[in-house]
Queue: 2 jobs
Job 1
Amino acid sequence: MREEDRASELLRSAKLALERQGHATPALDARLLLQAAAGLTREAMIADPDRPVAADAAARFRTFIDRRLKGEPVSRILGDREFYGRVFTVTPATLDPRPDTETLIDAALTFMPADRPCRFIDLGTGTGAIALTLLAERPLAEAVLTDISPQALAVARANAERLGVMARASFIEASWFAGIEGQFDLILSNPPYIPTAILPTLAPDVQDFDPRSALDGGPDGLGPYREIAARALSFLAPQGRVIVEIGEGQALEIEDIFKAFRLVPESRWKDLAGHVRCLGFTQA
Ligand code: GLN
């Protein structure tokens, strides 16, 4: 009978294979996939790195590593992705929440005092990562979450259940503001902003596994901002703000788009890499 594999041995060979392919975080990827395959916590793995791994778990791990070697992101293999300290379900219908988007959370929270109610809308919510994180952080807030994709909205609903914020969330299948009513203290969005012609140059784990509809911003990548800017003012409460995530180098053009619809650029927020990642606007 074959001896059981040791966790450390499985990790070492997986890490080498991933390294050889030039993956950015081979040790982390291997560890997360082994934890999932073997049903182990991080603490358990650290406490006993040489622990034996049952044959079925080891086989599952090897399948996970094969998928990773073919470019599939860890989050898609696991169906889970951490964002702002909470875990979200992801599916092929949703954009993987990115660390860059945590910039938008920090920005929005500065306008959401913890002791005051706040009503906001998240346009193109996907997994719901933005809106649901804010609801979890601010117990008095209420949110409308929209997406054009019913599959994505189903994922957002599941995540709302998972985070225990369902009672304060409404879900609307809509393209931007279509069919939306009322006024909001915050209008938030991380819309698709990649110019169509650039899509084929994106890394395989983005290009092959994120939904195109969540990436493709049209010929110049700015189409969704024009749609949002054109109607945002009529949905904004008197002291309200619009905050959007943007792509690298898009700040000036997007500020011009909003200015044309009487929304005044107020703030810029940088991501950890130092790129302007979010823009904030107020009423004139
Ligand atoms: N930040 C994503 C990327 O660069 C794009 C997400 C978007 O278009 N909103 O892959």
Job 2
Amino acid sequence: MSIVMKPSATKDEIDAVIQKIKSSGLRADVSSGEYQTVIGIVGDEKKVDFDQVKSMGGVFDAIRIQVPYRLISRSYIPDDVVVKVGSIAIGKDNPPVYMAGPCSKCVRRHPSPPCQFCRGGAFKPRTSVHSFQGLGVEGLEHLESVGKDLGMPTVTEIRSEVDVELVARHTDVLQIGARNMFNQDLIEAAARTGKPIFFKRGFSAQIDEYLSFAERIVANGNRNVLLCERGIMPLGGSFKLQTRFTLDLNAVPVLRKETPFPVIADPSHGTGRRDLVLPMSRAAIASGAHGLMIEVHDRPQEALSDGAQAVLPQELKKIINVSDLVFKTIRDSDSPFSSDIRNGTARA
Ligand code: PEP
Ligand code: MN
């Protein structure tokens, strides 16, 4: 349920609605806009009498939201959300942001690409126990000092709930990886730090499932949500797979239609192939992504993980230039297509 208060609603009227929700053992999510306050409910909203709420003083309307991810739905927050990290604004009609760096942080010189965010994994989720698992705290500290040197905010993955405070102390944006998309305790602990959460879609997750888990971030009081399409399981059967995953670009406009939060695409994991990162970056921006996460390494053959998909710093420069050009071309064109892309409201 979304309870829309009248612009003239008094503080007492707003408090009475919040109290009504609390007295049913539920939590209220209060969103105070420039003109109106909108109140959402965290918990089983069937416990609150819809008609009673609708008739309370100061209430303009109460709307039933049909999707399970109601706090992040467009019906609850109609306008695009801009997530700010320092001076960088992500989402809405802001220019695309680029997050780049190696898959795993190593203590070698970090490439200094022309991006806005510096990424690098310190706690790596790996299929095999025999693979490199990340440098842990040493990697975090190194990423932090690289971020300071480059004057860029940093993004790194938290693999375990136990590490949330540690990682939050050293990093600006907390990444929750594809393999942990269903890990509700980790998501909620990360959300409670209040730091922006870079939340990747699981490679076998339906969009409804993905958004239902993203809902947990906002339900824990954190609206700094960055969604990320990073590729889903490719079809292959007994044939040789051409790509590691399938970057699901359908997801970009679908996510933008369903929620107002920024959507970032990850063509590195989405393809697993360095030669496909440029074409899929262009396509991702054309589909409406607000930015890209790209793995880069100055000696990919020496990368500790994901070397096959790491582009060279000079290739990254080209990818960013071309992607910016795609963005500007669409933004500056007068076609209805461009405004659909800009507003995330592409129609069938
Ligand atoms: C990564 O960003 O290095 C990573 C492991 O991503 P994903 O969770 O999408 O596999
Ligand atoms: Mn990787």
